[in-house]
């Protein structure tokens, strides 16, 4: 059973899949850009057992090893408390229109990786 997945990216897109891109997604410059946290999910039966923390710590370490000083993400509303606990700060709230007319709340969050964990 897969209990979790998640990752980080050197690509510019903050959130969303490649299937919706009409143009190339350029690589980020670690000297001025923040790496991106991408698509974190933990199986509900395995939540609050440290799995998400292990994943985010591994992503942050890999980003640092690739020269990044900051991480940024587009968090869904249920994930905001977890990311805040992990040291991420809210930058802006985004209202993302969905094809069915509903609106999905996304919170852009950032963390300075130079701070002690």
Description:
The protein has helices spanning 51-65, 80-85; strands at 4-9, 35-42, 70-76, 89-97, 103-112. By secondary structure, the protein is of the alpha+beta class. It has one domain (4-112): Gcn5-related N-acetyltransferase (GNAT) (Aminopeptidase, 3-Layer(aba) Sandwich), CATH 3.40.630. It has a five-stranded mixed β-sheet with strand order 1-2-3-5-4. The N and C termini lie far apart (30 Å). The model has no long low-confidence stretch (mean pLDDT 89).
Topology (SSEs and partners):
Blueprint (H helix, E strand, L loop, with lengths): L3 E6 L25 E8 L8 H15 L4 E7 L3 H6 L3 E9 L5 E10 L5
Parallel strand pairs: 2-3
Antiparallel strand pairs: 1-2, 3-5, 4-5
In summary, what is this structure?
This protein is α+β, with helices and mostly antiparallel strands. Helix content is 18%, strand content 34%.
Q: Which properties best describe this structure?
A:
Aminopeptidase; single chain; alpha+beta; five-stranded mixed sheet; 18% helix; 117 residues
What is the CATH superfamily? Gcn5-related N-acetyltransferase (GNAT)
Q: Termini separation (Å)?
A: 30 Å
Multimeric status of the protein: single chain
As laid out across the biggest beta sheet, the strand order is 1-2-3-5-4
Number of domains: 1
Number of helices: 2
The pLDDT mean sits at 89
From the 3D structure, determine the CATH topology: Aminopeptidase
Percent strand equals 25-35%
Level-2 CATH architecture = 3-Layer(aba) Sandwich
Sheet of most strands? 5 strands, mixed
Order of helices and strands: EEHEHEE
Low-confidence stretches: none
Question: Helix amount, in percent?
Answer: 10-25%
| β-strand number | 5
Shape: globular
CATH class: Alpha Beta
Which structural class matches the secondary elements? Answer: alpha+beta
Radius of gyration: 14 Å
């Amino acid at each position: 059973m897969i209990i979790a997945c998640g990752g980080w990216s050197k690509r510019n897109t903050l959130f969303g899949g490649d299937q919706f891109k009409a143009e190339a997604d350029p690589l980020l410059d670690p000297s001025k850009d923040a790496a991106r946290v991408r698509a974190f999910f933990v199986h509900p039966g395995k939540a609050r057992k440290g799995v998400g923390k292990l994943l985010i710590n591994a992503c942050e370490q890999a980003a640092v090893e690739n020269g990044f000083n900051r991480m940024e993400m587009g968090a869904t509303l249920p994930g905001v408390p977890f990311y805040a606990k992990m040291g991420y700060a809210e930058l802006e709230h985004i209202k993302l229109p969905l094809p069915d007319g509903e609106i999905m709340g996304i919170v852009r969050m950032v963390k300075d990786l130079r701070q002690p964990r």
